[in-house]
Amino acid sequence: MASNTIRQKQKQQKESGSALHFVQTVGKVTGGTVLGITMLGSAIVAGGLVGLAISFRNLPDVRVLRGYTPSETTHIYDIKGKNLASIHGEANREVVPLDKISPHLKRATLAIEDSYFYSHQGVNAPAVARAFTANFNHGRTVEGGSTVTMQLVKNLFLSPKRAFSRKIAEAVLALRLEQIFKKDQILEMYLNQVYWGHNTYGAQTAAASYFGKPASDLNLAESAMMAGLIQSPEALSPFVDLKAATRRQHDVLHRMVELKWITPQEEAAARKYPIKLGKITSFQTSAMPYVTEAVIQELTKKFGRDAVLKGGMRIQTTIDTKLQRMGEDTAKRWIQTLNYQGVYADQMAIVAVDPRTHFIKAMVGGVDYKKSQYNRAMQALRQPGSAFKPFVYYTAFASGKYAPDSTVYDSPVSYPDGYEMYSPRNYDGSFAGAITIRKALEVSRNIPAVKLGQEIGLNKVVEVLRSIGVKSPIDPVISLPLGAVDLTPLEMAGAYATFASNGWYSEPTLIVQVTDSSGNVLLDNTPKPRLVLDPWASAAINDVLQGVVTRGTATAAQIGRPAAGKTGTTSSERDIWFVGYVPQLATAVWVGNDDYKQLGYGATGGHFVAPIWRDFMQQAMQGEPIERFTPTSEFDRP
Predict the structure, then answer these.
(1) Does 113 participate in catalysis according to the annotation?
(2) What is the DSSP string of 9-67?
(3) What DSSP assignment string belongs to 398-447?
(4) In angstroms, what CA-CA distances link 404 with 7, 385, 390, 392, 554?
(5) Which of 113, 178, 267, 491 is catalytic?
(6) Using an 8 Å Cβ cutoff, are 102 and 223 in contact?
(7) Which element (helix H / strand E) includes 173?
């Protein structure tokens, strides 16, 4: 252990006639040249502190440090453990135990900051005496004389303002602290608390920033450079002035040789070591801001902002970085293509949900986060148009009265709607007469959907939507089957994912698990699937929606494997959709304008959005096994 080595070296120094050493907290000098100064320092420390301690009754109680947890940086990871973002308040810090810090860094820090750390009891009397004399002669504070313990209590409890009264307070608190904590405990707190520049606090975060490695892996050269920064972290930073940082590193190494903590040969080797710098890690922007911001907002609601920014959380998200990148690239490419094709859209949202877990694997909240931080995937309430129809048809199947090949009538009809009559129309204005449900959904006829909604009861449709996680307000108006409701892309993707899983549902989430920095679980979102839909009716809707892709309005969504889905186009041509799925992944794609401007004449989900879905899904499913949907024959019909 570094502490044992340092203790041995200090013992050797004392035995070899070192000029200064300690007996308790009172310094005693063997060299006559500084005897007067030491006597003055001893008088101050031994006599003055007792009286001054009475005057400092209002000082903080250092015993609170027994349960003290410093603010710590929170880290957000993807599903495979890749870091997505590190967020923090004022202090960017990661706390580690003392045995996870390089012995070189411990020795280097004590060599330059407090070489008698393991000998004194919080106050280095000769150092205080020298500082007192220098400050007295200059009429102001020009020298510190602080021990590591005094620096720690200053950082934790006191104002950084340089004043004699504060130095006395430091001494009092340091003496108290040393009565309660062991030396290694104090050193651990210090190395995790100290400021190392560029908003990095603590050895672990500083090592990651300056050298791109954990504190445990620092070598002698790196440790000496880091220890040298404590005196003036910003001015001596190697990111700012490498020459100044190197000169200070040499001072540290020279001091370590003087103390006989390293050999001259080790010093020479460390001086020659080629330093490879990392990068400044504080306040870096997230590579996936729509995702990380959504995670932060969710956890802030649950735990509070301070807990998220300062609590050192380790957040594992459900996001697959590979799929997320695909989604972001797809949105950026296709928004330009759509404009070229005459669809004047400024935004797009893409959400991919795993039907087996309801984990959100990718979430693109817009085309460019820098231009707009509004997350359309989770927050934009837009009409889904005909993409809503599967919920109506599922409800009909679950009633036991209808099957995919049941006949419905595509013929004129009118319903009283307030003081007027509501007469639904098909997109092309025609009527098909008797038609199967399968065919009606494949070619997206409107009138059969409205008739069926009235037949089975729209309140039952709303109940189905609530059971599969749709929380947005829904009014059971006559035109509801045609998508006369505002839903988010995430709600659509999660609902369709429940069809894909044959009725098994878990609440869609971006977060798998949250722990504190010690590994204690704060939040566990392990899927707890519940069967909320009828399996046969779910298989039936899967069967019919496959026909939409193979021969209906979404042939542009074919990806060379069984896929199901539904196009959506609002009558005002302000929103166009395609929501589709394979057994392993359900994806919703929405295209529109934030100001609700029309997209252009003839803008439909089947013609313009289905190809976007195909592009994303072909990338996402590359290398994944082809799976087929479970047929209705595997389930009992209600």
Answers:
(1) yes
(2) HHHHHHHTT-SEEEETTEEEE-SGGGHHHHHHHHIIIIIIHHHHHHHTTTS--GGGGGG
(3) HTTS--TT-EEEE----EEETTEEE----TTS---EEEEHHHHHHTT-HH
(4) 83, 21, 12, 13, 18
(5) 113
(6) yes
(7) helix 164-180
DSSP string of 238-274, one letter each residue? TTT-HHHHHHHHHHHHHHHHHTTSS-HHHHHHHHHS-
Q: What pLDDT does 169 receive?
A: 75
* 120 DSSP assignment: S
Q: Please pick, among 115, 146, 386, 479, the residue that the annotation labels catalytic.
A: 386
Rounded to an integer, what distance in angstroms lies between the CA atom of residue 134 and that of residue 141? 8
Q: How high is the pLDDT of residue 305?
A: 83
Q: Is the CA virtual torsion 395, 400, 402, 404 positive or negative?
A: positive
Is 185 in contact with 62 (CB distance < 8 Å)?
no
Question: Comparing C-alpha atoms, which of 323, 318, 278, 273 is closest to residue 298?
Answer: 318
The contacts of residue 221 (CB under 8 Å, 6+ apart) are 249, 269, 270, 271, 273, 275
What is the pLDDT, as a whole number, of residue 358?
98
Question: Phi first, then psi: what are they for 140, rounded to 5°?
Answer: -160, 170
Residue 15 is encoded by which pair of tokens? 């035995």
- Regions of the chain with pLDDT less than 70: 1-60, 64-65, 67-68, 90, 127-145, 158-167, 282-286
DSSP state of 309: H
pLDDT of 159: 55
According to the model, what pLDDT value does residue 34 have?
Answer: 35
User: Tokens 């049941």 appear where?
Assistant: 406
What is d(CA 124, CA 135) in angstroms, rounded to the nearest whole number? 16
The angle that helices 220-229 and 103-113 make with each other, rounded to 10 degrees, is 40
Strand ranges, E, within 292-406: 314-317, 347-353, 360-364
| Active-site annotation holds for 178 | no
pLDDT of residue 378: 97
Write out the two tokens for 558.
Answer: 């074919």
Which residue in 214, 357, 372 sits closest to 278, CA to CA?
A: 214
Instruction: Determine if the pTM surpasses 0.85.
Output: no
Q: Which residues pair with 515 in a beta bridge?
A: 314, 521
What's 477's DSSP letter? -
Q: Which amino acid would we find at residue 39?
A: M
pLDDT given for residue 67 in this prediction: 65
